[in-house]
Design goal:
The mean pLDDT is 88. This protein has 49 residues and is mainly alpha-helical. The chain starts with a helix and ends in a 9-residue tail after the last helix. It is rod-shaped, with a radius of gyration of 21 Å.
């Protein structure tokens, strides 16, 4: 029973840490351009001459 008293706060803390990281990444603009990276990999800007 004492194991649950230790593990539940650790699990809640890790969940809050993950949620904070998700909101930080949304605020930082990680999800603004979801299609750009997929299209940039197909465009060959360094074409051989």
């Amino acid at each position: 029973m004492t194991g649950l008293a230790i593990l539940i706060p650790i699990a809640l803390g890790m969940g809050l840490l993950g949620l904070a990281a998700f909101f930080w990444s949304m605020k930082d603009g990680q999800y603004d351009d979801m299609d750009g990276a997929a299209h940039r990999i197909l465009i060959d800007e360094d074409a051989p001459e």
